[in-house]
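Protocol step 4 of 6.
Sequence for TolQ: protein TolQ (Sporomusa termitida) entered exactly as in the expression construct, tag removed. Do not edit the line below.
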Amino acid sequence: MLAILIMGGWVMVPLGLCSIVAGSVIIERLLYFRKIGAAKQAEEVVGLAGKGKLDDAKLLVKGGNVPLLRVLAAGLENRLTAANAMAAAAIIEIAKMKRGLPVLDTIITLSPLLGLLGTIIGMISSFQVMAIGGMGQPHAVTGGVAEALIATATGISIAIVSLIPYNYFLSKVEAETEVIEYQATKLEVALEKLPGGSEQYEDSKKFA
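Step 5 output, structure tokens:
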């Protein structure tokens, strides 16, 4: 197998780096997305806030290591401007969820292009051999074609293997963003319904 990859030429080096980086990003993101779900705990937080038990709600989200709980924590800590605080926190958390995805997207696009470059280089080598020695060196000609095909196959394979988890991660980001928006809106409404909620917010704007 290694000998076949070596036949792909120097373009296999950047393709190998692409595969290593893609694999690292995929594994890291899989581990990250396995632990970010906290919808049930968020429901409990909103329920406590709706009953006016803000201290209990804060304890529940204190030290939370998932995006949803950190967004709700921002709203509880800044009750008078909960909407703005949670919106700002959500921007940060969504950026964290998307971390590494631009790299994966680049590799998905770059790998086939590197494979195509390997194809072109291999074909050029074959044509140079034919121009110098005619068809008297068939092994050299087929070697250049083999180099082209190996590089192309490798580039496309890396792109395919990376594309599936990339789309999965994007769907996870979109789903988690919807959950954050939904739970943040519920918490905002719950805080506004508390005694003095809306009034305090209006007073804070007057003296701002």
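Step 6, annotate. The chain has a mean pLDDT of 82.
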